[in-house]
Specification:
The chain is of the alpha+beta class. The chain has two domains: 223 residues, Helix Hairpins, CATH 1.10.287; 138 residues, endopeptidase fold (from Nostoc punctiforme) (Alpha-Beta Complex), CATH 3.90.1720.10. The strands form two sheets. Strands 4-9-5-6-7-8 form a six-stranded antiparallel β-sheet, with helices on both faces. A three-stranded antiparallel β-sheet has the order 1-2-3.
Length: 399
């Protein structure tokens, strides 16, 4: 039954461990994606900065074009006003010229001979001649002014047309540049929003995966602890059974072939080297002594009894751990330094543990259980002896 349960726990732990590994792998992948997205966002931000510089340059050109456009529009308005003034002046000049020509036709302008014959004296003659010259000069001026006005009107009309074309070109350039700048800015904003949305989604997924990983880790730890506790209990039960079997065998052999030698204090040891609990000792003491009998003469092996309670040999802490586990006082093997904080401080009534970082041994119902004794007498059990200086003294709670 224990073997089957351990197999099921092992399979369940392996499944949990596989899920946990897959979850951690997914988290690492998402973290890598977030780092990549962050790098891309930084690149986009750098591109946005470059684009903003370009946009600022376009805006500067746009401002210059706006100033030019306003200047051109001002010139267009001035040219239009000047053209209108010239057209009005041309109209007046044309009217004056027409009026003069019409008057000359209707009144038969006097010729020079008639003026001389009809003159009343030299002064009058001179005045009439000057009048005729003035009239002709005025007509000539009107004709000249009319021609000049027409020429200027044509020139101004041409110049106005050129200004209007320039005005249209500048306006189109400004609109085109504005559209380009707006399109560039919109594209950068959209790209950055998309990248940040992707990174936010990855972070959300990572949070979910981390939460699932934590839940799997907790479940795995609980299952692993339960499996270890079950294994320790099984090992303790096996050790207790083995110790009990050994004790029964020793008792049978003792009853058949040996005689029990009573020692001081009611503590007994048979001729085969197995110790027995004194009358009135707690059950835990008997269990520990039986476990000690089971491994009393097994060899010393450094690290023995730590990987598993079932071992061909035991070191000092492995031996003490084995004995305590048989009585249900320890769930897993400990190293010698760990026993410095085991149980309660000071010597116990039935059991006392002596521990430091390099060695640990114990006494049970007056018997010393120590791997040093094994090296001396071939068994971990002995009466008396043991090192005391430099050891921390502890005992199991209640014993």
């Amino acid at each position: 039954m224990l073997g089957g349960g351990a197999l099921i726990a092992s399979e369940s732990s392996a499944d949990l461990q596989s899920q946990l590994q897959a979850s951690k792998s997914a988290a690492a992948s998402l973290q890598s994606q977030i780092s990549s997205d962050s790098a891309q966002i930084q690149n986009t931000a750098n591109g946005a900065a470059v684009a903003q510089q370009k946009l600022n340059g376009l805006q500067s050109q746009l401002d210059q074009h706006i100033v030019q456009l306003r200047d051109v529009q001002t010139k267009v308005m001035e040219a239009r006003d000047q053209l209108l003034a010239l057209e009005r002046k041309l109209t007046r000049a044309s009217g004056d010229l027409a009026a003069n020509l019409r008057a000359a036709y209707e009144n038969d302008s006097p010729n020079l001979v008639d003026v001389i014959l009809n003159a009343h004296g030299f002064s009058n003659l001179l005045s009439e001649v000057n009048y005729i010259k003035d009239a002709q000069h005025t007509d000539d001026q009107i004709v000249t002014m009319t021609k000049a006005a027409r020429t200027r009107v044509q020139s101004e009309a041409t110049r106005l047309g050129a200004l209007e074309l320039k005005d249209r070109d500048l306006t189109n350039q400004i609109l085109q540049q504005r559209n380009q700048a707006a399109a560039l800015q919109a594209s950068l904003v959209k790209q950055q929003l998309n990248e940040e949305a992707a990174r936010s989604s990855a972070r959300t997924k990572l949070g979910n995966v981390n939460a699932r990983t934590a839940a799997l880790q907790q479940k795995y730890n609980q299952q692993l602890a339960a499996a270890r506790a079950a294994a320790a209990a099984a090992a303790a039960a096996a050790a207790a059974q083995a110790a009990q079997a050994n004790a029964q065998q020793a008792a049978a052999a003792q009853a058949a072939t040996t005689q029990v030698n009573q020692q001081a204090g009611g503590i007994a040891i048979d001729t085969g080297g197995a110790v027995q609990p004194p009358p009135g000792a707690p059950a835990a003491v008997g269990q520990m002594m039986a476990a000690g009998n089971a491994i009393a003469t097994t060899p010393y092996i450094w690290g023995g009894g730590h990987g598993s309670f079932v071992s061909p040999g035991y070191d000092c802490s492995g031996s003490v751990s084995y004995v305590l586990a048989a009585a249900g006082l320890l769930s897993s093997p400990e190293v010698s330094g760990d026993f410095e904080s085991y149980g309660d401080p000071g010597p116990g009534k039935w059991v006392t543990i002596y521990a430091n970082a390099g060695h640990v041994w114990m006494t049970i119902a007056g018997w010393r259980f120590d791997t040093v004794a094994l090296a001396e007498d071939g068994t971990r059990w002995s009466q008396g002896g043991g090192e005391y200086a430099g050891f921390v003294v502890r005992h199991p709670v209640g014993l």
